[in-house]
Fold each of these.
Amino acid sequence: MKSLKATGHQLADSAFQLTVLSREQAATAHLPRFHQKLAGAGLLPLRPVAPAVLQLNVGKMCNQVCKHCHVDAGPDRKEIMTRETMQLCLDALAQTDIPTVDLTGGAPEMNPDFRWLVAELSKLGRKILVRCNLTIIVANKKYHDLPEFFRQHGVEVVSSLPFYSADKTDRQRGDGVFADSIRALRLLNAVGYGQPGSGLVLNLVYNPAGAFMPGPQAGLERQFKQALSKDFGIVFNSLYAITNLPVSRFLDYLIESGNYAGYMEKLVTAFNPAAAAGVMCRDTLSVSWDGGLYDCDFNQMLDLPVASPGSRHIRDFDAATLAQRAIVVNEHCYGCTAGAGSSCGGTVA
Amino acid sequence: MATYYDPADLKKFGNIGEFQKEFADKFFAYYGAVFAEGALTAREKSLIALAVAHAVQCAYCIDAYTTDTLEKGCTEPEMMEAVHVAAAIRGGSTLVHGVQMMNKAKELSM
């Protein structure tokens, strides 16, 4: 399977995605626009609070090609963050007291400067999260020591595992992904990740393998813990239930499967003002592989930069200017405000 | 096309209070309480609802609880086993009346 970009798909163009999302399709024309819903909840313009997370997308290269990927990542994507841009991120961080750095991709570990970046972040004393797709650990011998590397740097590992059985996982992430994920989880457990008292945190991410929303996070976590422990002897800390946003490959899936209108209607109907008040973009800043600044990773993929003309690139990072901005919203944002809400850290309401 | 079962009507279920608000409010409050986590998990209740939906052959309920069981993290085999439970009870309830038939036949026959 190739990325949308490699196949020249219309949806590889972010402007086309925004056109689809802007209700020009007759089936969703009756739905209220996201900014209207936010205004109704008294949240427009949406303002940031003090940033708690700097999320660095260090590249779109990935060893997997998942059907729901909002990044359109894959082996054929070559966009990766250079060490120079990483240094700009480190310089910006040093000016602030942002406590957490969240490394994502693609498979962030495939960036040749990934380990250098983690080591430099460690020196700054910030909490480091790595969004590890698990299979990268067993994909190639050069990655087999990643669990030990993570342990040495006290990295918190956040890993996608859409289900505790092979069938649903492989349907979303590709043949053999579940078996490789289990092997990788065992390696992480073996160095202490997820083990009680180790201080090494291993959190899993559940996202639905289809056009439906995640159920209550606590119940899903209980199921995952029981099944992974019973069937594979695997332990982990917390499960984050994340809603799929209608962006890139998941948007393509929704349209191709005839579920787009129904899914959007469901998200809109489930709009929750409490979830909207707690959306992650209020305390997160996202940096793209080429140094651009965004309110979140989804806005990044839709080429919707921060509304701070003087500070749109990490080299021009200015906390005071960014604090004054209004967060850029669009129709995909309904994915983060539906039901119990959704963020890179799971539910928010 | 006019039809007795329009999938769009499911979304209007909440509007039944338009004709009788008091009972609708009580029903939905009760409904919400029944499906909350309790001695049974919300997931177990969803699977029971899916089975009952098939037993009573409610097209709306089948759509609603297929979605709900998927959202609660149920697997397709679990969902189909729930439907078989409903089928077994329905089939069994037909067959167990065969005893009544046998009793009556024996009563009437030499």
Amino acid sequence: MQSSKVLISQALNIIQDNLERTGDPLGVKTVYWTRWSDGLSLPDRGPVLLYTARMYQMLPFIVEVAGMTEKARPLLPLLSVKGFARIAEVVSALTIDPLLRVKARRGQNIRSRSKAALCGIVSGLAGVGVHPAYLHDNEPYSGVLLWELELEEKVMPVAGSVYNKLKSAGAETVVTVDPHTTFMLREVYPRIISNFNLDIRHYLELLAELQFPSPEYRPSGFPEKFVLHDSCVMTRNLGIIEAVRTVANRLNIEVIEPENTGMDTACCGGPVEYAYPDLSRSISYIRAKELAETGRDVLVLCPVCLINLMKHENELGIRVWDMGEILNSVFSV
Amino acid sequence: MNRQEEQREALLGEISKCRSCRFCIDVCPTYQASGGVESFSPYGRLQIIKYLLAGRLDFDDSLTYCLYSCLKCRRCENICKSKGQNLDICELIHSGRYLLSTNLAREGKHAKL
């Protein structure tokens, strides 16, 4: 791909700069990640702490960034490398925040779905008697993107800062909501932080371990069966495979296994979307088509899988559901 | 030998354990999506890293695309394990990109093409 080297180089720098400048990988200065919790009255400290790492809240912004990158791509051959780099740098520093905020506000669908997912997770946890605290405005980003782009030295200060914030809030157990953050906290942070002393639990692990009553009523229009898309990180990195099946069973939901499932699940294409949206779309289409051949309603456990498979909903006639959305529907009856 | 050189040698040593059975190729989502180009497969990426670190290839646009398009989804490792080799392929690609991306990030906005 033409200009691939400068694109990757630029992406590495923009993410680093954004984090240093604003503490946010997208460079958004406004506190956007707490709105979902309005009205939930979550305490700001406690031994069990919910850590969202902004992953679901970033979705409307990620959709817009990906769209903007895709639109700017045809301009690349017209610009010199240094010219493109300079423009990207200035645009990132000056305009990305207000522009993204305006555009992301229009992404009502994904915004409401990511909010429903987080609210559903909190409702599900309440259903098993877990009432977590939440850091609200003080919740930091985990640095997962830096790790995935091999900027390991940059992860170290971020990890230290996150760990201190979690400990300062009195946390002993940290409940995560997505596989990527779970992997960071469970596998990467302990390699970086000496005497790491936090119990990291994905919410589905807690729901699978603790008993909760099966719901008596199924919400109207709610599907009876779902084809399950396992997340690569959840299965092959973390080895969490049965938890979602156990929880689905307790919710009286029939789970259908697609051709490639569990440890052999196929990727949604999300990890390369930041640089190669065309390739990412081809990969997500192959997976979405495979899922569509098995069932209409697709169940996912990861916000990255959600936005990548969602792209093909209209084309393939599928509806992608995050597990949090399902919990929200079931527990809000 | 400095730390980076040690990492480079260790990485080349691990890559040399690959028996070139190529069973990892077919399960790779980027290989499938690219229509069967071996440079977009786990085996192809290990070869690219090997020759880049040995200085026998230049780190150009095409090779950047091949390396940075890896999803690190670890599906290739399942098949590698089932064939008795059990290489941490994505960890090797991660390490290779780490050694190369340090320079990329340093070159930053003026990465030379």
